[in-house]
Design goal:
- This protein is α+β, with helices and mostly antiparallel strands.
- The chain folds into two domains: 93-219, 3-Layer(aba) Sandwich (Rossmann fold), CATH 3.40.50; 243-475, Phosphatase 2c, domain 1 (4-Layer Sandwich).
- 31% of the residues lie in helices and 22% in strands.
- The chain has a five-stranded parallel beta sheet. The chain has a five-stranded antiparallel beta sheet with strand order 12-21-20-17-18, with helices on one face. The chain has a five-stranded antiparallel beta sheet with strand order 13-14-15-16-19, covered by helices on one side.
- α4 (152-165) links the parallel β9 and β10.
- It is elongated and about 95 Å long.
Length: 480
C-alpha cells in the first residue's frame, strides 16, 4: 500500500505544501493561493498571531493552528539550476513567482508530481522583492504577464528586467489564453517557455519548471561550448601568427622545419626557432627551448625569438648576442628558476663555413654528401641562458663543405623512449642511428623530418610529453 505523508493511498488526492522541513498534505478540493493580501505578511516571513485564522483556512488547515514559515535559503556561489540534476531522486524544485495581482487570483491546485518531486514556491509581489528572494538555490522564475489592465510594453519590460536580474536561471512567462502574441514575444526575448493561466495545474507546472531548467542548462552549456570554441580559434590564430616565417630571400639554402608542442590542442610550446639572412649574405639560424611546457613558457620563447631576430639584424652574433638575450630572459621570466637553452649557427655567404654557439643545448647534426651523419663539436659550449649572471659563450668555427644538411633540434626529439617496452631514452646516439637509416633510404628535407618525428613518437609508444622542434638547412654544392 502506498503512503503519502503517512497516509494510505486511499486518502483523497492531495497537494503538497512545504514549510521548512515539513510537508503538509492538502486535499485537491482546496486551491492553493501562492499569495494573497488577506494573509497579511510578506512571502517567506512568519505569520502574525492575530492573522493566523484566515491564513490557515487558505492552506486548508484548522483554525487556531499556526503555520510554519517558509525559510529563505542561504546564498550560494553557483545557482543550483546550473549544477544539480533537476529533481534527481525525487528532489524538490524551487520556483520564485513574481505576481503582484492585488486580488490574489493566481492559484495552483497541486504541486506534487507522480515521481514524488515537490515544487517549493517562493513569491514576490514586485521586482524589488524578487531581487531579494532570488538566491542561488532557486531553479526557476515565473513572471506573470497577464495581469488585468497591464499594457503589453509594461509586461515585457518586467520580463526583460527579470532576464537581466536572473541571467543564469530558467524563466517562465505566464499569460492569459488570448495573449498568444505576448507569449511568443516573451519566448523570443529569452524566456524558456510560457504557460497559460487557464490551463495551469500542478502537474503541468511541475513539468514546465523541470523542462525549463533543463532547457536553460542546455542553452548555457551550448553558449559555454561556443565561447570555448571561439577562444580556441582565437588562440590558434594567435599562436599560428607567432610561429616564425624564415627570411631567406637570395639564399640558395633549402629550409624545412617540424614543430610539435607537448601541450594538448596547442600550436605553440616553449620551443622556438628562426632563420634569417642578413644583407651581407650570412644565413643565421637558431633553435631554443624554455624550460616547461605551458603558455607562459611559450610566450617567453616567442619573446626570445623576436629579440634574437632584432639583435641579429642589428649586427650582433656570438657571445654579444647571447649575453643580450640573457638580459632579456632575466627581465621577462616570472622566476629566477626559469632558464632557456639555445643553439645558434651563422653560415657564411658562400655556404662552406659556419660559426656555432651552444648555450646548454644539444649540438646540431650534420650530414655531408657521401658520409654518415655526425654531431658537430659540443665540448666547449656555455651554460643555458639565465643560469649564470656573467656567463660566456665561445663561438666555434665549423667547416661545412660543398654539399651538406644541417639538422638543429630540441631535446624533445631525443628524450623519448627507445621503445614502448623500455624506459631507456633514445639519446643522441639513437637519433644518429635513426637519421642515418632514413638518409640511406633516400629521405631528405620535409620527408626526412616527418619520418624522424614520426619514428620517435612510435618508439616512445605514443605522444611525446615534451615539445619538439626540428630545423633542417641543406645546401647542394653541385647546383652552384
Amino acid at each position: 500500500m502506498m503512503f503519502v505523508m503517512g497516509r494510505p493511498a486511499t486518502t483523497p488526492p492531495c497537494a503538497a505544501y512545504a514549510t521548512g522541513s515539513s510537508l503538509i498534505a492538502i486535499p485537491f478540493r482546496h486551491r492553493i493561493p501562492l499569495w494573497s493580501p488577506s494573509w497579511g505578511h510578506l512571502p517567506g516571513e512568519a505569520l502574525g498571531e492575530g492573522r493566523r485564522s484566515s491564513s490557515c483556512r487558505a492552506l486548508g488547515g484548522r483554525e487556531g493552528t499556526t503555520p510554519m514559515p517558509v525559510p529563505v535559503p542561504r546564498q550560494r556561489n553557483v545557482p543550483v539550476a546550473e549544477t544539480a540534476p533537476v529533481g534527481a531522486g525525487g528532489g524538490d524544485l524551487i520556483l520564485l513567482v513574481i505576481e503582484d495581482d492585488p486580488a490574489g487570483t493566481f492559484s495552483v491546485p497541486g504541486l506534487l508530481d507522480a515521481a514524488g518531486a515537490r515544487v517549493r514556491i517562493r513569491t514576490a509581489r514586485n521586482l524589488t522583492e524578487a531581487e531579494r528572494l532570488l538566491t542561488d538555490d532557486v531553479h526557476c522564475v515565473l513572471v506573470d504577464l497577464a495581469l488585468p489592465g497591464r499594457p503589453q510594453d509594461d509586461a515585457l519590460g518586467a520580463l526583460k528586467h527579470v532576464l537581466r536580474l536572473a541571467p543564469r536561471h530558467a524563466v517562465l512567462a505566464l499569460t492569459a489564453s488570448g495573449d498568444t502574441e505576448l507569449a511568443a514575444e516573451a519566448v523570443r526575448l529569452g524566456a524558456q517557455d510560457h504557460l497559460v493561466r487557464e490551463e495551469l495545474d500542478g502537474r503541468l507546472l511541475t513539468r514546465a519548471v523541470r523542462y525549463a531548467v533543463e532547457r536553460k542548462r542546455a542553452d548555457t552549456a551550448q553558449v559555454k561550448l561556443a565561447e570555448s570554441r571561439l577562444r580556441a580559434q582565437e588562440n590558434a590564430r594567435l599562436e599560428r601568427g607567432l610561429l616564425p616565417t624564415p627570411l631567406l630571400e637570395g639564399s640558395d639554402l633549402r629550409f624545412a622545419a617540424r614543430y610539435r608542442p607537448g601541450r594538448s590542442r596547442a600550436l605553440l610550446g616553449g620551443d622556438f626557432y628562426d632563420t634569417v639572412r642578413t644583407p651581407d649574405g650570412t644565413v643565421h639560424a637558431m633553435i631554443g627551448d624554455v624550460c616547461g611546457h605551458g603558455p607562459d613558457e611559450a610566450a617567453l620563447g616567442v619573446e626570445l625569438r623576436i629579440a634574437w631576430r632584432a639583435l641579429t639584424f642589428a649586427g650582433l652574433c656570438g657571445d654579444d648576442l647571447l649575453s643580450t638575450l640573457q638580459q632579456v630572459l632575466e627581465h621577462e621570466r616570472e622566476s629566477d628558476e626559469i632558464f632557456a637553452t639555445l643553439c645558434t649557427v651563422d653560415i657564411s655567404a658562400d655556404g662552406r663555413r659556419a660559426g656555432l654557439c651552444l648555450a646548454g643545448h644539444p649540438s646540431p647534426l650534420i650530414a655531408r654528401h657521401g658520409r654518415a651523419a655526425q654531431l658537430l663539436p659540443y665540448d666547449d659550449g656555455g651554460p643555458a641562458l639565465g643560469l649564470l649572471p656573467r656567463a660566456r659563450w665561445p663561438r666555434r668555427q665549423v667547416e661545412l663543405g660543398g654539399s651538406w644538411s644541417l639538422m638543429m633540434y630540441t631535446d624533445g626529439l631525443i628524450e623519448g623512449r627507445k621503445g614502448p617496452d623500455t624506459k631507456q631514452r633514445l639519446g643522441q646516439d639513437g637519433m644518429l642511428a635513426m637519421i642515418n637509416r632514413q638518409l640511406s633510404a633516400g629521405l631528405d628535407g620535409e620527408s626526412l623530418l616527418e619520418a624522424a618525428v614520426g619514428e620517435v613518437r612510435e618508439l616512445n609508444g605514443g605522444d611525446l610529453t615534451d615539445d619538439v622542434a626540428v630545423l633542417l638547412l641543406s645546401r647542394d654544392g653541385a647546383r652552384r
